[in-house]
Amino acid sequence: MGLLKWIVAGIGLEVGAEAAREGIKAVRKRTEPLTPEEEKRRAKQAALREREQQKAEKAAAKAAKKATRERAKAAKRAEKEVDKELAALKKQVGRGDR
Question: Do 90 and 96 meet the contact criterion of CB atoms below 8 Å apart?
């Protein structure tokens, strides 16, 4: 059992060392200064995201404005309908507009 224990420990050590190497490589990559090409690419991507966000905000504002207009129209139609019904009821009762 002692030999198996050492083999398993060795494999665990190798796996752990590989994970540590990958972690160190990732940290170094993040802390390295960017090349001018990489800076340009990131700036271009940021500008593109900004334009897309502005476009989405503009579309949302437009949709909100349209929804507000539609609600106002619906309220106006409902008010006219109520007025029509009231006028019909007044006629039916025989009062009319005196």
Answer: yes
Give the DSSP letter string of 21-41.
HHHHHHHHHHHSPPPHHHHHH
pLDDT digits (tens, 9 = 90+) for 50-81: 999 999 999 999 999 999 999 999 999 999 99
- For residues 57, 62, 65, 70, the Cα torsion angle rounded to the nearest 10 degrees is -130
8 A C-beta contact, residue 42 and residue 50: no
Alpha-carbon distance of 34 to 1, in angstroms, equals: 52
Report how far residue 66's alpha carbon sits from residue 70's, in angstroms, rounded to the nearest whole number.
6
- Contact predicate 60/67, CB 8 Å: no
- Percent of the chain exceeding pLDDT 70 equals 90
Reported pTM: 0.48
Q: Which amino acid is at 4?
A: L
